[in-house]
Design goal:
This protein has about 160 residues and is mostly beta strands. About 10% of the residues lie in helices and about 45% in strands.
Length: about 160
Amino acid sequence: MQRQFTGCQALLLLIMVACSLLPAARVHVAHAQPFPVPAAEAVIITPSATRVMVGDLVTATVTLISTDDECGFFAYDLTLSQTNTDSPVLAYVSPQKVGPPVSSTTIFTLTAVHSGTTTLQASVFGETQCNGGWQWTSKNGESVPIVAVEPVHIFLPIVGSA
């Protein structure tokens, strides 16, 4: 018994046979490409101050550092968070998450809103390209502790002569 194929089925069968005869090819799906940076070996967070008063602004500079010249890392997004999420010590003035794209240096602005100690954490999500292969990965970093204190008000009596 002979099998009958529709035009689409015959075309699909022809493509499948042709592909099976070709050497294996690597397929890469094109994405909206962010800025490539070297493969991040470390994520460094540098706060502008480690001791602040409630109400002060703090900037946190997040830098992707690399020592790998052979691989690339395409950073899609960068999220800055705090260790104490129940009662955050710092409030975000700039967005908490950036990207895509993400550059190798990003500056966040925060305001101290409560007294306490917190540590900033950065998580960079993207693709690592190395030796022809692509892999989704996250790179993480943590700052030194940042201490926010309430301002101290001292009231001095004014002594005058009458």
